[in-house]
Design brief:
Elements: E1 5-7, E2 16-19, H1 25-36, E3 42-45, H2 51-62, E4 66-69, E5 74-78, E6 109-113, H3 118-128, E7 134-138, H4 149-157, E8 161-164, E9 173-176, E10 186-189, H5 196-204, E11 212-216, H6 223-234, E12 240-245, E13 248-253, E14 263-264, H7 269-282, E15 285-288, H8 302-305, E16 312-316, E17 319-323, E18 334-336, H9 344-351, E19 358-361, H10 373-383, E20 387-391, E21 394-398, E22 406-407, H11 413-425, E23 430-432, H12 444-453, E24 468-470
Parallel strand pairs: 2-15, 3-14, 6-7, 10-11, 18-19, 22-23
Antiparallel strand pairs: 1-23, 2-24, 3-5, 4-5, 7-9, 8-9, 11-13, 12-13, 15-17, 16-17, 19-21, 20-21
Helix pairs in contact: 1-2, 1-6, 2-3, 3-5, 5-6, 7-9, 7-11, 9-11
Length: about 475
């Protein structure tokens, strides 16, 4: 881990900028995976180029797929060579070993580097059971603490063979197939720790010869991410029906060929959060171009959340516009973020500067993210001189005067952006390893400085993704 310290810039004047956000990591991962399972090549534009998505693309290559830039800003994804042309008879062609389709030196085992990407370690183990190889998954040291047991247990019930190098239910592990439809066509999965367990199995379900129903064992967190997966499948011709069985959510998937799709990836609305927060905190203005009118992204919740903190938000053909109230000019809130827990660190940073206390609930599952985000937030807020208390399913924040200090990021991109937001309102904040933001938002530090330096003038034409322009 880098020990470099980044001096977080202070916002001395209201921000006035147009910030172009790169493509959604969540949508990119789903598009890459479903394109690799489709019956023909797909063309994707607006694909996020970050550490997570590079690891995802490389993993698909290692499994025998082809993911290539066409030189015109598009990514061309060819289906994995062993995906069935016929629904009832798969052609288990060996994964290729060319440069375009990846390579591996061990003839018996394919090695997948997950980094710290939940999408790689959760979306790809089901796909690995389609090969004739053993597939070994490992990642960064912090990745070995991320929970995988609900997904891997479900795959074992389908017949997958899994061996663990260490603790069961965690990286590193080796998996091999084949798998079969479950008895009665119903597979139960525990989604209390992550919605990705359901999404991974939903995207795998069309490969079965019989209809498959995935049934939640209990609570389901981050439901918008599952809705995003269902939408991605339906747009590719797969029939998915959500219903309830004895009060529990379930999703029924009909076997189908997955249609190829030429798709443009929306900007990542969760990653827009820190830039919206910057305008909110500084009493300034920001525009996020290409904000979708309708979307399944969790980050769209900013449109509902930030007005509760005094922001004014409008959306038109130019994008989403936010006018912020400024720090100390809004009251705190009590809010349930169970559906959009990834927004918690950004919101927590804003709540430090509210006039009254706040409570965030419904986010116990954040303990299993890149780090234990609840514990990390409490520790860093207290390091600032603030008042935060961890609760069983959330965090309580009472605004206090804050002091400059060194903030840790725990190799967690959202803790890094939390620190950057705090630095806008507190002098002398130093951030450890701001580069961890490359996981989902390349060039974050440059974008942040450029946003703060943007002069007030008429908006220039839209630039490339990740660039920042002056205000209106």
């Amino acid at each position: 881990m880098s020990t470099d310290l980044w001096p977080a810039p202070l916002a001395t004047t209201p921000i006035d900028a147009v910030v172009v956000i790169p493509g959604s990591k969540s949508l990119t991962a789903r598009a890459l995976l479903l394109a690799s399972l489709a019956e023909a090549p797909s063309r994707l534009s607006g694909v996020l180029d970050s550490r997570d998505t590079r690891l995802f693309a490389q993993a698909l290559r290692m499994l025998g797929g082809a993911v290539n830039d066409d030189g015109a800003g598009n990514v061309i994804v060819e289906p994995l060579p062993y995906i069935a042309v016929s629904r009832n008879q798969r052609d288990f062609t060996e994964p290729g070993v060319s440069t375009e389709r990846g390579s591996h030196t061990d003839a018996a085992t394919i090695h997948i580097d997950c980094g710290l990407a939940g999408t790689v370690m959760r979306f790809l183990p089901p796909i690995a059971t389609l090969t004739t190889h053993k597939v070994h998954f490992d990642g960064d040291p912090a990745a070995r603490r991320r929970p995988l047991a609900p997904l891997l247990d479900a795959l074992e019930r389908l017949g997958a063979q899994i061996t663990y190098d260490g603790a069961p239910g965690f990286l590193p592990f080796t998996i091999c197939g084949p798998v079969e439809s479950p008895p009665g066509g119903v597979l139960e999965v525990d989604a209390a720790a992550s919605s990705q367990f359901v999404s991974a199995l939903l995207m795998f379900a069309p490969a079965f010869n019989e209809p498959l129903t995935l049934r939640a064992a209990g609570e389901v967190v981050s439901l918008p991410h599952i809705e995003m997966t269902v939408d991605a499948l339906q747009r590719r011709g797969v029939k998915v029906i959500q219903s309830r069985h004895e009060g529990r959510l379930q999703w029924s998937v009909t076997p189908a060929r997955i249609n190829a799709l030429h798709e443009h990836i929306e900007p990542d609305l969760s990653n827009a959060g820190p830039f919206l927060a910057a305008a909110h905190l500084s009493g300034g203005r920001v525009t996020i171009p290409a904000w979708p009118e309708h979307t399944t992204q969790a980050g769209d919740a900013w449109r509902r959340i930030l007005p509760r903190l005094g922001a004014t938000i409008t959306v038109d053909e130019a994008g989403l516009h936010l006018q912020g109230p400024g720090q100390g000019m809004y009251d705190g809130i009590d809010i349930d973020l169970s559906a959009v827990g990834e927004l918690t660190p950004t919101l927590a940073a804003l709540l430090l500067f509210a006039r009254t206390p706040s409570t965030i609930v419904g986010v116990a599952h954040l303990r299993g993210h890149e780090t234990d985000r609840l514990a990390a937030l409490v520790e860093q807020i207290r390091r600032l001189g603030g008042d935060a208390t961890e609760r069983p399913d959330g965090i309580r924040i009472i605004p206090r005067p804050l002091k400059g200090t060194r903030l840790a990021t725990y190799e967690d991109h959202r803790m890094a952006t939390f620190a950057a937001i705090v630095g806008l309102g507190v002098p002398d904040i130093e951030v450890e390893n701001i580069g961890t933001t490359s996981k989902t938002l390349p060039n974050f530090a440059h974008m942040w400085h450029t946003m703060l330096a943007a002069p007030t003038h008429e908006a220039a034409p839209t630039r490339h993704a990740g660039q920042v322009e002056g205000g209106r």
